[in-house]
Amino acid sequence: MDTKKMARKIREDLLSLGDEALRSSTARFFREEIKCHGIRSAPVRKYGTMIAKETSGQSKEKVFELCELLWRGGYLEETFIACRLTESRAKEFEKADIGLFQHWVGSWVTNWASCDTFCNHSVAMLLDKYPENIGVLKKEWATSPNRWLRRGAAVSLVIPARRGDYLEEVMEIASILLLDDDDLVQKGYGWMLKAAGESHRQEIFEFIMGRKDIMPRTALRYGIEKMPPEMRKKVMDRSKG
Fold first, then answer.
1. Structure confidence at residue 238 (pLDDT)
2. 155: number of Cβ within 10 Å
3. In the chain, helix, strand, coil percent, each to 5?
4. What is the CATH architecture assignment of 104-241?
């Protein structure tokens, strides 16, 4: 496979599917400046599945080379295709792939949608296979100066946390990110806590209660969103510590 040729074909196909009005309206969802073709999610997913089938006979290395080109292109929909292609090779993931994933997030992610799509799925799938890589999230991602790696450290655990997995690690990462002043990172770890609370409500409630006076309000509100009203009231009533 000529990966450069394939990347050009993907861009041309997506350009033909784009809509100028949707391109403008999509940009309003982001504070950061983004590049997008203006395509709704369902057609992008359908197209991504088609490309994954087309490349199924190629080596993982070739597919990841194509993903790198798509990430470098910087278009929102192209990053979603890169995410879909990466997911399609989950059975071939190796422990060392965390380094490449870290490179992609740290170098090419520029918005919350690309960050969450990649970390919710591809990174979470890698962690399912190699849970020891959570140590990389704690030591390198959560402490990085890059806001997307810090957010990624949290949102990579959202789906596993919802299943009830990694409670200790969830609280460790939330502790590292606790006082982060970036609201997108706060929303990320708040979301992770909310997900963990679906299976470990009391533990997450106690974790938040013990830190409610210093936890940024954005993270706090996300973390308690699905808790019963009486629990939410206790957390929000800061005067009763």
1. 59
2. 26
3. 75, 0, 25
4. Alpha Horseshoe (1.25)
